[in-house]
Amino acid sequence: MLRNNTESYGLVTILFHWIIAVIFIGQILLGYLMVRTSDFALQFSLFQWHKSFGFLILGLSAFRLLWRMANPRPRDPLDMSRIERLAAHTAHGVLYLALFLVPLTGWALASSSPLQIPSFAFNLVVIPPLPLTISDQAETFWTASHAWLAYLSAFVAAAHISAALHHHFWKKDAVLRRMLGWHSRIRIAAQKDIRS
Ligand code: HEM
Ligand code: HEM
Question: Is the CB of residue 54 below 6 angstroms from any atom belonging to ligand 1?
Answer without folding.
Answer: yes
